[in-house]
């Protein structure tokens, strides 16, 4: 996946992957706490929000993608299967990051 992302509100960027291109725009940035951006592709207009919360053992990462309509079952199913794959890869990579 490739991106020209910058954590600046109103910055537009794209995610490019083998399954297609997603148009995004940064909606909210609170350093070390929150990142939210629009996620638009194939008629889908949702919001992805990442939240970091300090814990006694480290940091809790929460991701939420909201805004799916009832008629977007296929897109919702794709997100439900795609995000866990992303998190599996992220979990494998994190121990290697210093």
UniProtKB/TrEMBL annotation:
Activator of Hsp90 ATPase homologue 1/2-like C-terminal domain mapped to chain residues: 2-94
Cited InterPro entries: ASHA1/2-like_C (IPR013538), START-like_dom_sf (IPR023393)
Coiled coil spans: none
Superkingdom of source: Bacteria
Protein family per UniProt: Belongs to the AHA1 family.
Entry protein name: Hypothetical conserved protein
């Amino acid at each position: 996946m490739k991106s020209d992302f910058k954590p600046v509100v109103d910055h537009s960027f794209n995610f490019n992957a083998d399954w297609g291109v997603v148009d995004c725009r940064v909606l909210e940035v609170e350093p070390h706490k929150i990142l939210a951006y629009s996620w638009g592709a194939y008629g889908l207009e949702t919001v992805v929000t990442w939240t970091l919360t300090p814990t006694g053992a480290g940091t809790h990462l929460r991701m939420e993608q909201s805004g799916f309509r009832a008629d977007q079952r296929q897109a919702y199913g794709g997100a439900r299967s795609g995000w866990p794959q992303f998190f599996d890869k992220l979990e494998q990579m994190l121990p290697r990051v210093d």
